[in-house]
Amino acid sequence: MEMEILKTLGGIILCITIIISILASINRKGVLEKVVITNIVNTKTVALIFILSYIRNKPVFLDVAVVYALINFIAAIAVSKFFDGYHKQGD
Fold first, then answer.
1. Which pTM does this prediction carry?
2. Is 88 helix (H, G, I), strand (E, B) or coil?
3. So where are the chain's domains?
4. Which of 25, 43, 58, 80 allows an S-S link to 37, with CB 3.0 to 4.6 Å?
């Protein structure tokens, strides 16, 4: 029973930090700062999916979380390469 409360509490805390991160991205002006905060939110979402998988005892959610993490990683690399090329052209 205590472990269930801790898992639920961890999920709630993770949701609160996701909301705080989203609110922090609203006040940012730079695109790169928003990309980093989006990456942070996506990473926390992966952790939330892992917790949900553990609570619900559904291993298929782990596959979803891994695929979501890979998409997040590839998107971060693509955006980084785009801005790297954009800054080189601007010089």
1. 0.79
2. helix
3. 2-90
4. 25
